[in-house]
Write a structure and sequence with these properties.
heterodimer, A: alpha+beta, Immunoglobulin-like, C8orf32 fold, eight-stranded mixed sheet, B: alpha+beta, globular
Chain lengths: ~650, ~675
């Protein structure tokens, strides 16, 4: 009876909103300031997230977008995914012309229902309902109205009214109704003031509202989106996920929940136990045991994504992995945990946000902010991190996907935040020396030795550990930065350790590397390491600059020249020192040889917006210096032609 | 069937070898086999199919009709990690919403060599097979083999039963990994006639057929006079059956290369098309000639009839679109522009309509078949003769003219007789001009869906992409340079540029233009011609300026923009012919006004280059000095055909190597005082 009453109220508000909406979607009603840089304007949005007793929730959303041009087309589409824990209760929409007059509403049969499996997974139970108007008489307005029901509140929705991609917002409102028995926690970014809180029949209501947010122009190396636009993240104090109860009261509590999902799933079959004993017998050092067991795990399992089982959060048990020899990140980490446990080594199951853009954790809002699981072995100061979905990494190396961020380590005592290793300038190296010979027709024979380490070896690591030698050759024949060339020989050796290293030797013949015009030879002594970044100086900069990847490159080049040439133009040495990095190069002629040296140190960090012109200048200077050219003239001068 | 197959024999000119084949029995793996590290057929292979054996039989079913029963047995040697994806198997099943093809008898085993023994791990079929419904006609079942490592051999078999007789499984002898043995057999009873399409360069190792007799029993339902089922009876048909068997040995893998339209054109494969039902079934031709195919398409509710059905509403909407157009050309242009500018294409691979044309007209969105059938219908109701045309886009493979098989097509355009001219139209692309087609429609055979099923030949060789750049560059004694650039794009590049200009503002576009230059330039006075004249190529005119220092020697590349910087043919080897989308003609000319006080110390030499004697690709670089302070340079690049055989690849690569080198050459100016 109660529920029905609520529904009636919803319907009543809805009807009154719809009545108002008709005329208010006229494009002329959009404030001028919101049209600037925009392809789409969110005209109005009303979200009502209601958490009920018994840990269920409903999510009602009504949103209208005015699409100004082709770039805004993707907002004329609406999609909702669903699975066992999330259902789409209603899905409606209408299309309006520029004057705000309704053209039509969607019919039931027009809503597509497709598999939500992204093909990366063998199995998951996601499906997607979606619709698009595919309209192109601009400008026009679409309005979508949906209602979603959740079983459990582990995954609370975010409110980020403004999305990337030339969107301005005229109005958006979020209302959360939360019962007294399950308080709401939240974290806000770029929201002026506090939400309006009121006591209501259901408990408490919170309302956030924004008006007139102008479109944000995308900028190079901008900070994370939530740092530059209004964002509110929610978590309920308590939640359930299928049969498991959890709490977001603290990281300790949330960690306890994650641990409960995985505990007692680490029993190994007898033959694997034996294997563990066999692999570790006679080994005294724990680190060596870890290495051996990690390699065993890598050689005997593979990564397969199966997003089933307690909302995709419970690992398949160790026995499952032992018999199938595959698993997802959770199952493989849990399996590795079991192997180590069998060898008497304690390890800690850790959940983390994976991906380059996923390195920020709201430490003061304990909640489900993770999409990946790894493992670490505490060894005093030398913690060994294990990425269990990799079949090729050395024990202890995480790389850019999970490095340098907070993660939640969980054990029987609950959760605790930990930080993963940072790979900095001194770890991410590329040290190259080249001996080259230039023929008179411009052909260059290049012999290079390159030492890569840390994140600078990730790409090549992937190639040489996954592909056959002939495939690597095919890759090299396509990917090097020369106009026309042949790879005569190549070789790689690697040292897989906590800081992995790859040494590469290449022998390449580059046709027409030097340009020959009459008696002159034009040659760029920087053979294999040119930067490509060029920024536009005219751009106004609004946000801070966030540079992430640190590295250091050193190139030493020796080019043997054909006989009888002398320099006509030699580039001056370049030395640039800025807050973003340090660059230098020199070129000189020593007898018959050109000697070139280049070094770059790229720093990371946060730089104020006003330093942007300096960054443009820095990149430009490096771009230019990388392409500086030596001109040589044949000494006897039979002047021909003009 | 016999007759059709003999045609096929001639097509492939295949001879029969003695009947020998490797015995590949499920579960019988030798140590020698599993210990192999690589295979001669392709040493770069990350996995090798040891055997892929399929068989289709036709069986009477309990549903008053016949079913296809397809069995497959496949064994793969996994050599490198990158091939683990081959251990995940997806089986696509057809459904019409009521019935669905059925997967049974799945068996899958992984073999590993451990401590001198071969260890088996079986797939748990009960829990390990997952189902996913992709769309209304496709269900996919998936499983992944357990315990796969580098060096594993995996093996699986399954059966698919289908009540859709038109869906006789095709066979692909070739794929992305090599096959040591690939074999398919099909037993066709004399009451069914299938047509066969065979393709590929790789020779058959076996190609045999054997006649025999067999019995088919079909369960018929007994019905009383009211039509209710009262029981069933079995009827038996004894008739001739032909057992066909094809096999290939050591088939190399297909590899992606730049400038191939689709690997489908090179893949060794067999496909089947249901052609007719024969005695003792009631004889019925399913497919015979192109005109018949055209007639049947025109009578289909989801093709030709859609246009007929538009009669009721079309007269009501046309006047507003035609306004006061009088000539056929005016009318056709109005209709075309209306559809192109108002209707969004949601599916560029569509042959049949999914909703009514009225619905497409109202919703302003539809697939390409819907849009161009609507176009055809509107032209007709405006009094213009128009017919739909079916074709296959380049990425869908060639059409075999000998086989009137509808499955070869995936695209619909329209042909109209307008003021005495036959014009091809496609209203599905927002930036395409009247009478223009996207280049990937130029894929050989197209068929007009009229009474004669008129044949059209659309070839890439009929298209030439013409680009033209003219530059006037002048310098002064202060080291300042100014240039006026006039750039006329090729037609298809123009389509692309218009699209980008819609997506970005002019300012962003100018920033991109600036990046084309070696030095930092200032760009001004940008003028764009023919931005909205979609039938015409687009042209840019702008000024650039840049400052240099007053050096004693100035080095200047006269090809300041539109230079070929990299060789488009990087790889040293080539497996398949190079297929260009169109012929190319590029002209570049520059006049340089030498700054006062400087003179040319060195100039690039003229060059005339031909890829081969016929000049299938040619390049010329000419230099002249019309007066003391003027230098004039002209480059002309021509690609005069679109299909280059692999034997011509080396010459083509070398040609571009020399073009890149020549366009890099410099003019050297020296201060005279």
């Amino acid at each position: 009876m109660r529920n029905r009453f609520i529904l009636l109220i919803c319907l009543a508000t809805l009807i009154s909103l719809a009545g108002m909406a008709q005329s208010s979607y006229a494009v002329v009603a959009i404030p001028e300031a919101l049209l600037k840089n925009a392809s789409v304007i969110k005209r109005t949005e009303d979200i009502r997230y209601e958490i009920t007793e018994g840990n269920k929730a409903s999510f009602y959303q009504k949103v209208a977008y005015t699409i100004l041009d082709e770039q805004g087309d993707r907002w004329a589409t609406h999609a909702e995914w669903y699975d066992k824990l999330r259902s789409v209760e209603s899905f409606e929409g209408s299309l309006y012309d520029a004057s705000g007059k309704k053209i039509r509403s969607i019919k039931k049969g027009e809503i597509k229902d497709v598999s939500g499996n992204d093909n990366a997974s063998l199995a998951d139970d996601n499906r997607v309902k979606w619709h698009s108007f595919f309209y192109k008489v601009y400008p026009f307005t679409v309005e979508y109205e949906t209602e979603i029901r959740f079983k459990g509140t582990m995954f609370s929705p975010d409110w980020i009214p403004q999305q990337k991609g030339a969107m301005s917002v005229q109005h958006s409102r979020l209302t959360v109704l939360s019962p007294v028995s399950n308080p709401l926690r939240y974290k806000m970014f770029n929201y002026k003031g506090e939400p309006v809180v009121a006591e209501v029949k259901q408990g408490k209501s919170y309302t956030w509202e924004v008006k007139d947010l102008p479109a944000i122009k995308e900028e190079f190396a901008a900070p994370s989106w939530h740092e530059i636009t209004t964002s509110v993240f929610l978590a309920t104090e308590k939640f359930v996920l299928e049969d498991y109860q959890g709490s977001n009261a603290s990281w300790k509590d949330f960690g306890k929940f994650v641990y409960d999902l995985k505990k007692e799933r680490d029993e190994l079959p007898e033959e694997v136990k034996q294997k563990v004993r066999q692999l570790t017998s006679g080994v005294t050092e724990d680190k060596e045991k870890v290495r051996r067991l990690y390699e065993y795990m890598q050689q005997n399992t593979r990564y397969i994504s199966i997003q089933l089982g307690v909302g995709g959060w419970q690992p398949f048990d160790a026995k499952y992995v032992a018999s199938k020899r595959y698993g997802d990140c959770k199952a493989l980490s849990n399996y590795m945990f079991a192997l180590l446990k069998e060898a008497g080594i304690r390890s800690v199951y850790t959940v983390i946000g994976s991906g380059n853009d996923n390195d920020y954790l709201m430490v003061d809002l304990p909640s489900s902010q993770f999409n990946h699981a790894i493992l670490f072995v505490p060894q005093g100061k030398d913690t060994v991190w294990l990425e269990c979905t990799s079949q090729t990494n050395g024990a202890g190396y995480l790389g850019g996907n999970t490095g340098n961020r907070y993660a939640l380590a969980v054990d029987e005592n609950g959760g605790a935040l930990v930080r993963t290793p940072h790979y900095g300038m001194n770890e991410n190296l590329q040290i190259r020396s080249i001996k080259a010979t230039l023929a008179e027709d411009g052909t260059l024979l290049v012999k290079s030795n390159t030492h890569y380490s840390g994140m600078q070896q990730d790409n090549i690591h992937g190639l040489i550990n996954n592909l056959s030698k002939d495939k690597v050759k095919e890759y090299l024949h396509e990917e090097l930065d020369f106009a026309t060339y042949d790879v005569n020989q190549f070789n790689y050796s690697q040292d897989k350790s906590i800081l992995p290293v790859i040494d590469e030797t290449l022998e390449i013949t580059v046709s027409n590397y030097a340009t020959v015009t009459g008696k002159r030879l034009f040659i760029v002594p920087n053979i294999m390491n040119k930067t490509y970044r060029k920024l536009s100086a005219t751009d106004e900069r609004k946000y801070d600059i966030d540079l992430g990847f640190e590295y250091k490159d050193v190139d030493s080049v020796e080019i043997e020249l054909p006989k009888g040439y002398e320099p006509e133009a030699m580039p001056q040495p370049v030395s640039i020192s800025s807050q973003f990095g340090k660059y230098s190069n020199t070129v000189k002629l020593a007898g018959n040889k050109l000697i070139y040296y280049r070094s770059i140190e790229q720093y990371s960090g946060r730089f104020p917006a006003k330093t942007y012109p300096d960054l443009v200048k820095y990149y430009d200077a490096v771009y230019k210096a990388d392409r500086s050219r030596v001109v040589l003239v044949r000494n006897e001068q039979p002047l021909k032609g003009f | 069937m016999q007759k059709l197959l003999s045609a096929f024999f001639i097509l492939c000119s295949v001879s029969c070898f003695s009947q020998q084949n490797p015995t590949v029995k499920f579960g019988k793996i030798s140590i020698a086999e599993i210990e192999r590290k690589n295979y001669d057929v392709d040493t770069s292979a990350e996995a090798v199919v040891i055997a892929d054996i399929g068989a289709t039989q036709i069986k009477g079913n309990r549903n008053e009709w016949f079913s296809l029963e397809f069995r497959r047995h496949k064994r793969i040697h996994i050599l490198k990690r990158n091939a683990y994806s081959h251990a995940t198997v997806e089986i696509s099943l057809y459904t019409d919403g009521k019935m669905e093809e059925q997967l049974d008898d799945v068996k899958a085993v992984t073999y590993n060599y451990e401590n001198g023994k071969i260890v088996e791990t079986k797939l748990d079929v009960r829990t390990g097979v997952f189902k996913d419904k992709l769309d209304k006609n496709r269900v996919v079942k998936k499983f992944t083999l357990p315990n796969v490592k580098e060096g594993s051999i995996i093996e699986y078999e399954y059966k698919v039963t289908s009540d859709f007789l038109f869906n006789l499984q095709p066979w692909y002898f070739q794929g992305d990994i090599p096959r040591l043995w690939s074999e398919y057999s099909v037993a066709i009873p004399s009451f069914l006639k299938y047509m066969l399409i065979a393709q590929g360069e790789h020779p058959f190792y076996l190609n045999t057929s054997k006649d025999k007799r067999a019995n088919y029993s079909v369960e018929l339902k007994k019905r009383d006079s009211y039509g209710s089922t009262t029981g069933s009876e079995q009827i038996n048909i004894t008739c001739g059956v032909t057992d066909f068997r094809w096999a290939m040995k050591n088939v190399p893998p297909l590899k992606e290369e730049a400038y191939t339209t689709t690997l489908l054109n090179y893949m060794a494969k067999l496909e089947f098309q249901l052609a007719a039902y024969l005695e003792p079934l009631s004889p019925q031709t399913v497919m015979s000639t192109w005109p018949d195919l055209a007639q049947s398409l025109l009578k289909r509710d989801d093709f030709g009839m859609q246009m007929e059905n538009a009669a009721t509403w079309m007269p009501g909407v046309l006047p507003a679109i035609l306004q006061n157009a009088t000539t056929e050309t005016e009318k056709a242009k109005k209709i075309y522009a209306y559809l192109r500018d108002n209707v969004t294409c949601t599916d560029y691979r569509q042959l049949y309509t999914e909703s009514t044309l009225r619905n497409v007209f109202d919703k302003k969105s539809g697939g390409v078949a819907e849009i161009n059938l609507l176009l055809t219908a509107m032209l007709r109701y405006a009094g213009i003769r128009a017919d739909p045309v079916i074709l296959s886009r380049r990425d869908y493979g060639f059409v075999y003219d000998n086989y009137p098989v509808i499955g070869q097509f995936n695209y619909v355009i329209s042909r109209a007789g307008i003021d005495g001219k036959e014009i091809l139209l496609d209203a599905s692309y927002p930036n395409l001009g009247f009478g223009k087609l996207n280049y990937d429609c130029y894929n050989g055979t197209a068929k007009v869906m009229n009474e004669q099923a008129t044949h059209l030949s659309l070839k890439a060789d009929q298209l030439t992409e013409k680009g033209n750049i003219t530059v006037i560059l002048s310098g002064n004694e202060k080291g300042e340079w100014k240039a006026n650039i006039n750039k006329l794009y090729g037609y298809y590049e123009s389509v692309d540029v218009r699209k980008k200009l819609k997506a970005n503002d002019r300012e962003t576009w100018m920033k991109e233009l600036v990046k084309e230059y070696d030095t930092e330039v200032k760009l001004e006075n940008l003028r764009i011609d023919s931005l909205t004249a979609l039938e015409e190529p687009i042209a840019f005119n702008y000024d650039i300026s840049y400052g240099g220092d007053q050096a004693n020697i100035v080095y200047l590349n006269p090809v300041i923009t539109g230079r070929h910087r990299i060789n488009p043919f990087k790889s040293t080897d080539r497996l398949y012919p190079v297929e260009m989308p169109y012929k190319i003609l590029e002209n570049y000319s520059i006049i340089i006004i030498v700054p006062e006080g400087y003179s040319a110390d060195e100039m690039p030499k003229p060059l005339s280059l031909k890829m081969n004697e016929q000049g299938d690709a040619s390049f010329s670089y000419s230099v002249s000095k019309p007066s003391a302070n003027l230098i004039s340079i002209q480059c002309r690049l021509e690609i005069n055909k679109t299909l280059f055989q692999t034997s011509e690849y080396e010459a083509l690569r070398e040609f571009f190597n020399r073009v890149v080198a020549k366009q890099n050459e410099q003019i050297v100016l020296k201060k005279t005082k």
